[in-house]
Amino acid sequence: MKRLVLKFGGTSVANLERIAHVAEIVAARYQECPALAVVVSAMSGKTNELVEWTKEAAGPALHGAEYDDEYDVVVASGEQVTAGLLALALRKRGLKARSWLGWQLQLKTDTAHGKARILGCDNPAFQKSVDSGEIAVVAGFQGVDDHGRVATLGRGGSDTSAVAVAAALKAGLCDIYTDVDGVYTTDPRITPKARRLEKISYEEMLELASLGAKVLQTRSVELAMNHRVPVRVLSSFEGPVAQPNSGTLVCDEEQIVEKQVVSGVAYSRDEAKFTLIGVDDHPGVAAIIFGELADAGVNVDMIVQASAKSEGRQNIVFTAPDRDAAHAGAVLEKARDKIGYQGLNVARDVAKVSVIGVGMRSHAGVAKTMFQALSAKGINIQVISTSEIKISVLIDANYTELAVRALHTAYGLDAD
Amino acid sequence: MKRLVLKFGGTSVANLERIAHVAEIVAARYQECPALAVVVSAMSGKTNELVEWTKEAAGPALHGAEYDDEYDVVVASGEQVTAGLLALALRKRGLKARSWLGWQLQLKTDTAHGKARILGCDNPAFQKSVDSGEIAVVAGFQGVDDHGRVATLGRGGSDTSAVAVAAALKAGLCDIYTDVDGVYTTDPRITPKARRLEKISYEEMLELASLGAKVLQTRSVELAMNHRVPVRVLSSFEGPVAQPNSGTLVCDEEQIVEKQVVSGVAYSRDEAKFTLIGVDDHPGVAAIIFGELADAGVNVDMIVQASAKSEGRQNIVFTAPDRDAAHAGAVLEKARDKIGYQGLNVARDVAKVSVIGVGMRSHAGVAKTMFQALSAKGINIQVISTSEIKISVLIDANYTELAVRALHTAYGLDAD
Predict the structure, then answer these.
(1) pTM score of the predicted model
(2) Closest partner residue to A88 among B70, B83, B92, by Cβ?
(3) Residues of B in contact with A53 (CB under 8 A)
(4) B24 at the A interface (CB within 8 A)?
């Protein structure tokens, strides 16, 4: 293998004992590949503490974009500490290692402080150091903008850092160590029949991540897909030497020999359903509604324009994250005259259940199986939305677990 | 005033409440001078915590130069957090402010990690920002070396950072806010008659700092003297607006109109007295003894070569910090044959008491006053050492307070 990138999250480096354990894992992996970079998060809980301090310093009411550059200065210190400590722990084991902070790595970002996007990472000194056998311990979650200011990537950004480092190094593999041992066909807390997937395609993983499976951050999967970086999710709570088939490899569809029609069942309870009743039926009305919501930063998901019309009016139904429900409601209330509607109904006791699989592209009858399985359990479908590799339905939140289990069985995903 | 530099130590920024208080002081000082830089330490206790972590990560037995670069990465994060938080607190008050980390400031140091020396600071962008009215909140204690690695200045280094920033900005004044309200004629815990000095010369302050008065770090005073930066020591625990005559100004001798013969009485209990008995009296023997000790990192202070000789042998007496006593003893034991001596005696129950004053240069009888005052109290002098502006004596440690009080009175330093 040419070069290898490992990433350890906050729970894996939560204290000095865990950091020593990570050093043990890294030492074992170094035997396998001596051109190695390790990306680390802040110690678990540390980021929250730092965020609280910034809120206290700036005042909660004032927190906003005009504070975000200094917020980044404070919060990025968490990963700096972990990177230095892991470098020390590796040296204690007799290995060559050094830390790299965002500005040393020259991981360039835009200036959207607090949620910056990575623009690139091209640092010959970094590559040279890695190729010389010196383990690079990279402070995740942080980069540097064009003005030479510290910028953080937002929550979960260390995954994205790891993939960006892997892309920059043209690494053969990016191993994301976490507190779960891979990606599952569904949430194992809902059904014990959930199975670990050996492989999953970038596209499927992207749908799963967007749908709330918290294993990998969405943007890290996008970046991996764009740069064709093979990413593996595995547990840091096992022994130092990963078993050959442990974890889940996120890779190109072509590398998956036995394709399932449906690879997994996902769900999200952070959903709210908005029904705009009696909307004026004239061209451009949808553009007005969703323009207002987009300007207010509300992330609209499913949209259904009901076909039944009467007197030139129609109903429009859409979903948005439940945490934005009050905000979205206020936006719509304010724009009532501009949009022209008779009533607004907001349902917050709804959940979204989705089945994902690249096999859908070439298989008919996938939706039929879904609707039949839900119908057999007496579950009513409120909204349907589909993509090339995903079918999502909105249902009463009380039925979430029942629906997930029924679909897991219906698509043959249950473990033996 | 052209430009102003303020520095706040760890107890002044110990928590969010104290940081808000510092912001209040800074806001008041900004009215007086809108070209302002503020240098901050880590929150009190934070550096100790980070140091402990590095020891735990690297292993206590292994701690040394080969770890110091990563030690610096970890420990420097403390000042980074405070700088960001104070910038936020200043913005909350409606002021323009931004943080500057060592690498952003381009505060260049040598590569002696953990105790780096400042080489210089020349950053036009920094000066421009300060002159534009944007308050610069500088993370103290840290710089960047030629390899682009983080370097820390060692304990108390934030004072030195502040003076370096003041020198770079050609500031009219560098105000060091601390938990005492100035420099005293002696330790107020020993005599309530100790008086705050309104002014003290760089040379006197340098002697006081070297002698263990912990108000300012020695290197910060050296740097201030070399660059002729007026430094004022004052308390951050008073109101936001400093009174015109508060604190103690450390300045050129020429600026002090009413010169005292003796300005202060200092003492140190961290002393050990070594007596090498029956040393071969041949040329170069002193070079061997103190060469061995210097190579071992022992900081030798007073040296006396006893004049009484017998059979070509002599006694050599010197002092070193008590904390190095065991180490120095071992070094001398090991070099016994190389040096050639008959016995070694180490006394650890000794203290050094010193009187300091630039007035000594032009006044006779200063030493006589000292010896008479000590003699009158029955205090025996074991070793004497003098410089142009200082007389130090080594005495039995039990008499420390008595000696300090007697000298304070004898030189007319007692408050009314």
Answers:
(1) 0.85
(2) B70
(3) 16, 81, 85
(4) no
Q: Which CATH number fits domain B265-410: 3.40.50.620, 3.40.1160.10, 3.30.2130.10, 1.10.150.450?
A: 3.30.2130.10
Could you state, in order of their start, the residue ranges of all structural domains in chain B? 4-255, 265-410
Query: What is A4-254's CATH superfamily?
Result: Acetylglutamate kinase-like (3.40.1160.10)
- CB contact at 8 A, A231 and A216: yes
Mind telling me how many Å the CA of B158 is from chain A's nearest CA? Answer: 18
For residue B274, the Cα-to-chain-centroid distance in whole angstroms is: 25
Asked whether the beta carbons of residue B66 and residue A91 sit closer than 8 angstroms, the reply is: yes
Task: Output the CA angle B187-B39-A53, nearest 5 degrees.
Answer: 105
Q: Is A54 on the interface with B (CB under 8 A)?
A: yes
- Tell me the backbone φ, ψ of residue A412, rounded to 5 degrees: 70, 30
Check if B4-255 and B265-410 are the same fold: no
Task: Quickly name the fold that domain B4-255 has.
Answer: Carbamate kinase (3.40.1160)
Angle at B20 between CA B16 and CA B25, to 5 degrees: 145
Name which of A49, A72, A77 to mutate to probe chain B: the one with the most chain B Cβ atoms within 10 A of its Cβ: A77
Q: Which residues of A256-271 are buried (b: 16+ CB within 10 A; e: fewer)?
A: beeebbbbbbbbbeeb
Half-sphere exposure of A7 (CA within 13 A, CB side): 29
d(CA B256, CA B202): 11
B192 touches chain A (CB under 8 A): no
| ipTM summary value | 0.83
How close does chain A come to B16, measured CA to CA in Å? 6
Per-residue pLDDT of chain A (416 residues; tens, 9 = 90+): 589 999 999 999 999 999 999 999 999 999 999 999 999 999 999 999 999 999 999 986 665 678 899 999 999 999 999 999 999 999 999 999 999 999 999 999 999 998 899 999 999 999 999 999 999 999 999 999 999 999 999 777 899 999 999 999 999 999 999 888 889 999 989 999 999 999 999 999 998 877 766 788 888 999 999 999 999 999 887 766 656 678 999 999 888 877 788 999 999 998 999 999 989 887 788 899 999 999 888 889 898 876 555 667 888 999 999 999 999 999 999 999 999 899 999 999 999 999 999 888 888 889 999 999 999 999 999 999 888 899 999 999 999 999 999 999 999 999 88
